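Fold this complex.
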Amino acid sequence: MKDDAIKPTGTQSIARAAAVLRALALRSQSGARMADIARETGLERPTAHRILQGLIAEGMATQNEGTRRYYLGPFIYELGLLAEPRFHLREIAGQAVAFLAEQTGDTVFLAVRGGNDALCIERKAGSFPIKAFTVEVGSRMPLGIGCGGIAMLAALPEEEAASILKFNAPRLAEYGDVTATQLAELVAAARGRGYAINPHRAPGIAAVGMAVRHADGGLAGSISIAAIENRLPSERIEKIAPMLRAEIRKIEKMLRAS
Amino acid sequence: MKDDAIKPTGTQSIARAAAVLRALALRSQSGARMADIARETGLERPTAHRILQGLIAEGMATQNEGTRRYYLGPFIYELGLLAEPRFHLREIAGQAVAFLAEQTGDTVFLAVRGGNDALCIERKAGSFPIKAFTVEVGSRMPLGIGCGGIAMLAALPEEEAASILKFNAPRLAEYGDVTATQLAELVAAARGRGYAINPHRAPGIAAVGMAVRHADGGLAGSISIAAIENRLPSERIEKIAPMLRAEIRKIEKMLRAS
DNA sequence: CTTGACATGTCCATATTATGGACTATTAAT
DNA sequence: ATTAATAGTCCATAATATGGACATGTCAAG
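Structure:
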């Protein structure tokens, strides 16, 4: 998130509060304990506690009274709704996703990054009768699971991608028997060729995906195409990839213009 | 947003940063100048500038180099996506919105508050052939314009509602010739009867709306029903209001359980 | 029931950060 | 060209945020 520009001074509290929000984001489903937050942010417990109380007072965090766990608060949701139009990837990319589904006949997914997860925000089915509905719109899974996630990891700085894979390693068991090492290889291969191939997203399913970037080069999201394995041999992937790249170029141009 | 609980100490910087984010939220479409932010937050300009630089460093704000204006940043969007499931009003309320559209035959809207605006996040048309599509999904307008906005204002503390109406007063001209005084009267009337009636949302259109609350009593959003004027005489409004209230009670119960 | 481990939460002397008046630079309006 | 408005910087110091020490609460083990 931080660029290489000169860091501002007198903003330690803001940086610390943002770090706490990132810790909450990582556990936005399960909720975070204060001990988790203190450990992940490197803050002393009284400091973490005070920052949490400050965020709660502003509506940016909430605490479940029963479990004592902390969550992102309603003001974050509200701000997110207002921020959405400036990053309205769903609207801008929706046509491209529909076009790719029509042209390929397969299922096309649009995803964005959410912390260490990928969030599916759009899906279009193609005409081919066997649909690879591997992901529901609105769902989330660790970055690396799914071709879109691999493509997004490949678009991130290597250290950041490695850190995410390390964080996600214990979580992979919920999604099959793929290992972090295998995912690291898929990410490296994706970096090399410019697009991700996931040959074993699920048994019998294969996928190809590519990242979408903001004007400043930052990661905006990804588009991926999934089909039954025998519909995606190497030759067809090599035909689909340029089509995907062309649509993504158009999306990136519109993101630049907005 | 702030409750009446004891305010935490040692969190002035967080409160100030949140105030800056609110100022950015108010102008999330047009962008905010630093002078705007300093004035609205009451901060001295060097302080406002430094806080903005801190938020930019964390990805919570961005600055357009050409216009110099500041906007909510990509990290806010990402956090908003992660916060959404805990406040997934669209999912929880979707069935109620569809049911009300089916039962009344008219158009039903679901909206949330976004700063001083109302954001339409869901719309269902009923079977009656004349549709009151006064608002597009995804659109926003000042709170007070539209029945859902009036209902949300009525659910807020009176001072907060007055402050929002004051802020929105100069903006009303874009939406017809209704005045802030008229809106204040509609809000007061809504507070009295427990639901909002907007007899002149647009020429020939009338609407009825009600707020949805979170478990803690805070405002979650609103549901409103719009139709051509002669389809909503007083007698019919008195039949629709209990139905609306019953559906909203169900939604609030599910919000509590989630 | 008791004990120990772990976690949450509070206090306040003081270390350190954040502040904002004074100033410079840039842009827009006249 | 001049003036007004706005953006942005600097740094002495005001005042905020810190975290070690401690209190309290919860839960699992014995």
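Chain A touches chain B through 56 residues (CB under 8 Å).
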